[in-house]
């Protein structure tokens, strides 16, 4: 998607120069900066219990795993655990 942003001149020059030094396009640099900022602002994922083995996973991904685990646990015969 294309959009227009108003960026202060000095900030624009600094971003463009930093992107160039890194060998990135300004577009890639800005996208990475926005992704990093959004990641910081997201709530921390639940890493308790079995979820801790998944590391830093988003709540969206955990919801899918939770559904699979819940479905599979319904088919477990308690006598199999003895």
How would you describe this protein?
By secondary structure, this protein is mainly alpha-helical. The chain has helices spanning 9-22, 26-41, 59-73.
Output the helix-strand order.
Answer: HHH
The fraction of residues in strands falls at under 5%
Structural domain tally: 2
Given the helix and strand composition, which structural class is it? mainly alpha
Number of E-type strands: 0
The value of Rg in angstroms is 22 Å
- Extract low-pLDDT stretches: none
Largest sheet descriptor = none
- Shape summary: rod-shaped
Oligomerization state: single chain
Number of DSSP helical runs: 3
Mean pLDDT: 82
Helix fraction?
40-55%
Q: Cα distance, first to last residue?
A: 57 Å
Fill in the keyword field for this structure.
82 residues; mainly alpha
Give the gist of this structure.
With 82 residues, the chain is mainly alpha-helical. 55% of the residues lie in helices and 0% in strands.
Present the secondary structure layout.
Elements lengths: L8 H14 L3 H16 L17 H15 L9
Helix pairs in contact: 1-2
């Amino acid at each position: 998607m294309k959009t227009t942003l108003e960026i202060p001149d000095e900030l624009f020059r600094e971003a463009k120069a930093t992107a160039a030094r890194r060998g990135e396009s300004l577009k890639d640099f800005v996208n990475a900066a926005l992704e990093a900022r959004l990641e910081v602002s997201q709530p921390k994922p639940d890493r308790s219990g079995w979820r801790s083995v998944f590391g830093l996973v988003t709540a969206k991904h955990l919801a899918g795993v939770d559904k699979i685990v819940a479905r599979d646990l319904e088919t477990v015969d308690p006598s199999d655990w003895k």
